[in-house]
Amino acid sequence: MILTEIDHVAIAVNDLEAAIAYYEQAFGATVTHREVVESDGVEEALLAVAESYVQLLTPTRPDSPVAKAIEKRGEGLHHIGYRVDDCAAALESMVAAGARAIDAAPRPGSRGTTVAFIHPKGSFGTLIELVQE
Questions:
Q1: Does the pTM exceed 0.90?
Q2: Distance of CA 121 to the CA centre of its chain
Q3: Distance between CA 42 and CA 66 in Å, rounded?
Q4: CA 27, 28, 32, 38 torsion-angle sign
Q5: Strand 76-84 and strand 128-132: pairing?
Q6: Quick one: 106 exposed, middle or buried, by C-beta within 10 A (0-12, 13-18, 19+)?
Q7: Angle at CA 79, nearest 5°, toward 76 and 85?
Q8: How far apart are alpha carbons 14 and 9 in whole angstroms?
Q9: Please, what are the averages of pLDDT over each run of 10 residues along the chain (133 residues)?
Q10: How far apart are CA 122 and CA 114, in angstroms?
Q11: Interatomic CA distance for residues 79 and 44, integer angstroms
Q12: Domain positions in the chain
């Protein structure tokens, strides 16, 4: 099995501060990491849930994939991040199984991770992020 655990569930939001406040009030969650990922055009806030995260994402520019997703589908579930031991091997395995890679090769992600995205077409409608810590 190449998946080791769920790294995060990503939720796209228009107002990051309001979303953080909601999670703090509703669940008692606290932000454990916050970062702007310039290459993806997003700002993220991670809220720890056991060994995984809820990742709140907001676009920092109108041409980012998250901005386009919110424009098309509204706020809500954006993608699932799965932890893997070897991002390149996991990407290769998924492509061999018929997945459509968005990233041709793994690239730097937030928190110093290595990531690769798999297109929802070919993975039953779910955008998948492979995450190697």
A1: yes
A2: 17
A3: 7
A4: positive
A5: parallel
A6: buried
A7: 150
A8: 17
A9: 95 98 97 96 97 97 97 97 98 96 96 96 94 97
A10: 22
A11: 13
A12: 3-132
Q: Which two tokens stand for residue 62?
A: 């109108």
pLDDT (0 to 100) of residue 1: 84
CATH for the stretch 3-132:
3.10.180.10
Integer CA distances (angstroms), 73 to 19, 26, 65, in order: 17, 24, 12
In degrees rounded to 5, what are phi and psi of residue 28?
75, 20
Contact 77, 11 (CB under 8 A): yes
Locus of tokens 């979303």: 19
In one-letter notation, the amino acid at residue 75 is: E
What one-letter code names the amino acid at 18?
A
